[in-house]
Design a protein that fits this description.
By secondary structure, the chain is α/β, with parallel strands linked by helices. It has two domains: 2-144 and 332-348, Rossmann fold (3-Layer(aba) Sandwich); 147-329, Rossmann fold (3-Layer(aba) Sandwich). Helix content is 43%, strand content 16%. The protein has 15 helices and twelve strands. The strands form three sheets. The chain has a six-stranded parallel beta sheet, with helices on both faces. Helix 12 crosses helix 14. The longest helix has 18 residues, at 312-329. The chain is globular and about 60 Å long. The two termini are 23 Å apart.
């Protein structure tokens, strides 16, 4: 959302962000305001608070178009309901199947939608499996990153010093980084299990898990037998720097609509191992820009990571090819321009 606000053509679009008044969003909102974005804070208690609808109902008539970012299929329902007279575009970020009352409600609300954006062809397929009639509305626009900004974040004055301070016991340690929410769908369980086999080949390997989530305590318990080789970093704001000093980045997802963090790993220049699920194969070409493995398979994960660590020169070529691919195909500016094309069509046909 912030990248769209930053890269949408300023001569055509005036952007306003509407979000809850939670204190945890204050810094995020300040970043939008620094981009010149107006921010409307809704006085709601939680995501189920029906006052969302009434606030948005008053707000939306002042706009030409609403873009709702649907993080899971049941989210943004108040915005979708309130936008019956304002052209509505939605981005389906993780379109897994809904059942029961939520599934019924989503089918009713999606009738208000003028265009649906998915971040991958795989995500588009999931949407169509739930409702094939939506085919004419769907546009695939790959997520992008602000490559120049992320490249700047990767810069370190002293990489060795940073590595020792944040990840390693010695400079010889091999750092395996995973940056993702600690959740079942991200598959860290299988990566922790894979570490047992990796350690047999590289006793100095350290798995660094960056992120927080509901499964942290479970994963900490699972990692106890190899606790000297696993570190839980918590939520970090220096992911770019962590990637820069890592030997391999791993995303062991069970379900993944796209995999934005893989783009970041590519720009950071770290070779990547990821699972062959969702939109990931649309980012990584196996054996060309990274290694793809079967999901929920610790042995395959271990074999791929070991292959990267044993072959630094070929692995560096994979990372270089990935970086070139991302810079060419997954730029945030391109993402914003393609999104703007959809806005133009929707507004023209209102």
């Amino acid at each position: 959302m912030m990248l769209l606000a930053k890269f949408l053509p300023a001569d055509k679009y005036s952007v306003t962000l509407a979000c809850a008044c939670n204190k945890s969003l204050n810094q995020w909102c300040r970043q939008f305001m620094e981009l010149g974005v107006q921010v409307q804070r809704l006085k709601v208690l939680h995501k189920h608070d029906p006052r969302h609808y009434f606030y948005l109902r008053k707000l939306l008539p002042h706009f030409d178009l609403v873009h709702a970012h649907v993080w899971n299929p049941a989210s943004c329902r108040f915005a979708m309901l309130a936008a019956d007279k304002t052209p509505l575009v939605i981005t389906e970020h993780d379109p897994f199947l809904l059942t029961g009352i939520k599934g019924w409600l989503k089918k009713k609300l999606v009738k208000n939608v003028k265009a649906i954006i998915t971040a991958s062809t795989a995500a588009k397929k999931l949407v169509l499996e739930q409702d094939a009639s939506l085919e004419p509305l769907i546009h695939v626009i790959y997520n992008g990153i602000d490559i120049e900004e992320f490249r700047n974040q990767c810069v370190l004055e002293n990489e060795n010093e940073y590595k020792l301070a944040n990840l390693a016991r010695s400079l010889n340690d091999k750092i395996i980084l995973c940056a993702a929410e600690l959740h079942e769908r991200k598959g860290q369980k299988f990566l922790i299990e894979a570490m047992k086999k990796i350690i047999a080949e590289f006793p100095n390997a350290i798995l660094a898990l960056a992120g927080e989530g509901s499964r942290r305590k479970f994963y900490e318990k699972l990692a106890l037998p190899i606790k000297n080789n696993v570190v839980f970093l918590g939520r970090r704001k220096d992911i770019a720097k962590l990637m820069t000093v890592s030997d391999v980045f791993v995303l062991p997802s069970v379900r993944e609509a796209f995999g934005l963090v893989i783009l970041e790993a590519a720009v950071a220049g770290v070779p990547t191992v990821a699972t062959r699920v969702g939109g990931i194969p649309e980012i990584i070409e196996d054996l060309k820009t990274g290694l793809l493995v079967d999901s929920q398979n610790p042995d395959h994960l271990a074999e791929a990571v070991i292959k990267i660590l044993k072959n630094p020169a070929p692995s560096a070529l994979l990372a270089k090819a990935a970086k070139e691919r991302v810079e060419k195909r997954f730029n945030a500016r391109e993402m914003a321009l393609k999104t703007a094309e959809i806005y133009e069509k929707v507004i023209a046909n209102r």
